[in-house]
Design brief:
- It is a single chain.
- The chain has seven helices and two strands.
- A two-stranded parallel sheet has the order 1-2.
Length: about 250
């Protein structure tokens, strides 16, 4: 049984990771590269640079906060540049490897949950599991912390990671209670768990702004969510199909 679980997860995760890499190559990757151009220009200027709101027909006092371009390299500690893969083939390979590892990890979680539930699934039912995974891991956290491009201003990293983990876990448990719970009170508890992280609120920076235009940032949010939805749909379908083929349940 353990061998079959790992076989399903490895095959489904590998296929979904490769699929996600292809989708990202045409959706989010070009936006990230474009944003890095703005980030590098901002670093060359150095420090904060106010956004020209007047040229956009917006008054600063309407925002209730100051808008600045993000810090350049000089604004981050000693200015040492972190390592990163070179653009081109090296970057593509590292991105693909990360997608495959992520796919295998999530496939292991899906496969384990399917086995623990103890009911046979197929590709269509696996797709529903994938939709649930997308909702918990991508969609619900994005309501508080939308995907960010390089150069965006953001709250402290640990605080954002903590809130994301709470939002994802709360959403996952909430969905399980709503759709799998048998007691009458469980759907109501599930709804409460869906809402709870957003009542607490995600951490946000004191100042609003970034090195990239808001139009590009908005495009990236949409492209990221669509890419994530495609990844989870494929992963759920592949996991369900392989679980049926390997007769896990």
């Amino acid at each position: 049984m353990i061998g079959r679980i790992f076989a399903v997860a490895l095959l489904a995760g590998l296929a979904a990771g490769l699929f996600a890499s292809v989708v990202q190559h045409f959706t989010t990757t070009p936006l990230i590269l474009h944003a890095e151009e703005f980030e590098n220009k901002s670093a060359a200027l150095g420090g904060h640079h106010p956004v020209d709101l007047a040229s956009r027909g917006v008054q600063a006092e309407d925002w209730g906060a100051k808008l600045y371009l993000a810090h350049g390299a000089a604004g981050h500690g000693d200015g040492a540049e972190a390592w990163g893969p070179e653009d081109g083939l090296e970057r593509t390979l590292y991105t693909t490897l990360a997608d495959v590892i992520t796919g295998i990890g999530f496939a292991l979680v899906l496969t384990a949950l399917i086995v623990l539930r103890g009911q046979a699934v197929d590709g269509r039912q696996g797709l529903l599991w994938g939709i649930a995974g997308f909702t918990a891991v991508s969609l619900a956290p994005a309501l508080g912390l939308p995907p960010e491009l390089p150069g965006s201003m953001a709250a402290e990293l640990v605080a954002r990671q903590g809130w994301w983990a709470i939002a994802a876990a709360s959403t996952a448990v909430g969905l399980a209670l709503m759709f799998l719970g048998r007691a009458a009170w469980m759907p109501y508890a599930g709804i409460a768990l869906l809402i709870l992280p957003h009542l607490v609120g995600a951490p946000h920076p004191d100042e609003i702004g970034g090195a990239v235009p808001p139009e590009l940032a908005g495009h990236f949010v949409a492209a990221s969510l669509v890419s994530a939805a495609a990844f989870w749909a494929f992963l759920g379908w592949a996991t369900g199909s392989l679980a049926k083929r390997f007769e896990l349940v």
